[in-house]
Amino acid sequence: MGLGKEYWHDVINVLRDIIPVYDKVNLAISLGKAKELREKGIQLLLNDNMFVLDAGSGYGNMTETLLNLKQDAKVTMLDPIPEMLMLAKERFASIPKISGVFEHIPFDDDTFTSIMCGYSFRDAISY
To answer: What CA–CA distance (Å, rounded) separates 118 from 78?
Structure first.
């Protein structure tokens, strides 16, 4: 399952093109509930000593929501679109950012206590 490699590149290009209106698109896709859904999903993850991978982080909406709910969480952002990570760099200077895909996470299995992904799972190459 998933988009497959050929179609995935098309989707990534579309995501790159909509960066200026990315939040508006997500708001429309979620029927106005993007923030509420992020908060509800993240509340399921909350625990002490959190080391979280934000897989398909974009420019950091899930990371921001997590840090608003749990300020001491440690986060690493992973996204295949360098332009998104550049925007994240402006918002989260001290958080590590890695360019890559979550089908091939470049970390050892025990690096993180949790992995979160917002809309990125929808855009997976395979799952």
So the answer is: 12
The residues spanned by each domain of the chain are 5-123
User: Residue 79 belongs to what H/E stretch?
Assistant: strand 74-79
Fold designation for 5-123: Rossmann fold (3.40.50)
Location of structure tokens 């497959």: 4
Is 55 within 8 Å of 120 (Cβ atoms)? Answer: yes
How do residues 65-111 score in pLDDT, each as one tens digit?
Answer: 999 999 999 999 999 999 999 999 988 999 999 999 888 888 999 99
> What is the rounded distance in angstroms from the CA atom of residue 42 to the CA atom of residue 63?
10
* pTM attached to this predicted model: 0.85
